[in-house]
Amino acid sequence: MAVPAFDRVVMPRLVLRRLVPEDLEPLVAYRNDPEVARYQSWTDYDAQRGRQLIEFMQARQPGEPGWFQFAIALKDTNALIGDCALRVDVDDPRLGEIGFTLSRPHQGQGLGTEAVKALLGYVFGTLSLHRVFAVTDAKNTGAAALLARLGMRREGHFIENIFFKGAWGDEFQYAMLAREWAAR
Ligand SMILES: CC(C)(COP(=O)(O)OP(=O)(O)OC[C@H]1O[C@@H](n2cnc3c(N)ncnc32)[C@H](O)[C@@H]1OP(=O)(O)O)[C@@H](O)C(=O)NCCC(=O)NCCS
């Protein structure tokens, strides 16, 4: 059965929706926060990069092979407070990877957990993926706690498998199967 075009996922405090041009300023602001960027792939995140991301996502649908970036917005105001992503495996579209970022003022309130819960619900429910994984820096305690809180299983601790921002780093891999999500 064909999947309907993505519109939004509504949660008690949040909405996952498409990125729109109006998101550029808050997106660049939180991605440039060194605390937010510490365990992420980018260092300096400029407006051109943000604009390219927003434009690139306009023509994409989650579930297509490759990355789709979802906006995380407050339900009451529609203001962008973060983003999360799904990467569908190009060789087997039943497999996916997720990522997530929340602006600093919105951390510590359970909003990240709420957003990733919405993402997993969409990925396993609407998109019917079989398995989802996430990779975090082993020092990123907030991200690891969030994934564990949602029932994802720590499957791997990779020792110094990435040279990252000037040093070798360890990473954790977390994963979950569709039947484990359904049984939660
Ligand atoms: C990863 C990240 C989203 C985690 O943010 P977070 O605020 O720790 O996670 P949550 O939004 O789920 O909030 C959980 C915290 O809110 C608290 N909380 C408060 N109210 C809550 C509520 N109503 N429901 C649930 N938790 C609540 C929890 O107790 C927890 O606090 P603790 O960390 O002191 O135990 C955030 O650190 C981030 O964006 N970092 C930068 C980007 C990044 O590294 N991304 C991950 C790459 S893999």
UniProtKB/TrEMBL annotation:
Pfam families: Acetyltransf_3 (PF13302). One of its GO terms (molecular function) is acyltransferase activity, transferring groups other than amino-acyl groups. It comes from Corallococcus aberystwythensis. This is N-acetyltransferase. Keywords: Transferase. It comes from the Bacteria. The lineage of its organism: Bacteria, Pseudomonadati, Myxococcota, Myxococcia, Myxococcales. Residues 14-179 form the N-acetyltransferase domain.
